[in-house]
Amino acid sequence: MRTWFSAFALVAVLIFGLSFSAHSQSDNQPASQLDVLAQDLSLQFKQATEQLALLPVNERDTFAMQVVIAQLAPHLDLEFSSLKLLGKHVRGLDRQQTAEFTRLIESQLVNMYAQVLVDYRGADVSLQSLHTNQGRKFAEAAIDINKPNREHSQLIFKFKQDTQGQWRVYDVISRHVSQLSVKRQSLVLKISEIGFEQLNHELRQAQANNI
Questions:
Q1: For 88-117, what is each residue's pLDDT tens digit?
Q2: Is pLDDT at 123 greater than 70 in this prediction?
Q3: Which of 31, 90, 99, 126 could form an S-S bond across to 35 if both were Cys, CB 3.0 to 4.6 Å?
């Protein structure tokens, strides 16, 4: 019964996201791709946090990962995120090494963003508060979030415009903390301890275990 409910919850999130996107694009003056994407991601985030609050504890992580894979992952700028994660260590790597790291790190990012989603379960996400700030190549979209017994906070999606002119997500700021920066600190420390090749080896093993 619980598995059925979890599946129903995921389908509900997907349907809400699709209907919101269609409505946004039917306006007389179509919003920019950035605005539409920010609206879609915010609505999907709101719907997912509401559904997560209804799920038993042992189903939350799986549901959150399914939502992130379906809704956020297609819009991630994995290449830019990888460069940000590697920092100065990218200088000593060839194209093949960085390409493999980019491919392997996706599951790590999905898990990271899924945990952010779980953390906000049952929160009051104010879609009316959504606002975007767009620069030439970078932009962000912030939305207000309130949760009982916690101070007011914002969730911020960070975007970068790719070579085709499409806006893609490269980081999420949760409770004033860059999730990519937190991940970078742990990865840089690990590279310093075991080296890049061993890190990639461990990422390969982790990916294989998740299949």
A1: 888 888 889 899 999 999 999 999 999 999
A2: yes
A3: 31
Q: Could you list the residue range(s) of the whole structural domain that residue 189 is in? A: 2-210
Tell me the angle at which helices 179-194 and 196-210 cross, rounded to the nearest 10 degrees: 120
Angle of CA points 63, 65, 69, to nearest 5°:
120
Rounded CA-CA distance 82/77 in Å is: 9
- Whether residue 24 is predicted with pLDDT greater than 70 in this model: the reply is no
Could you tell me which of 167, 170, 162 has the C-alpha nearest to residue 83? Answer: 170
Distances in whole angstroms, Cα of residue 192 to Cα of each of 52, 95, 100, 140, 204:
37, 20, 19, 32, 19
Q: What is the largest CA-CA distance in the chain?
A: 56
> pTM, whole model, 2 decimals?
0.82
pLDDT at position 18 is: 43
- Say how far apart CA 175 and CA 178 lie, in whole Å: 8
CATH code, 76: 3.10.450.710
Name the DSSP class of 27: S
Angstrom distance (rounded) from CA 25 to CA 172:
25
Domains contained in the chain, number: 1
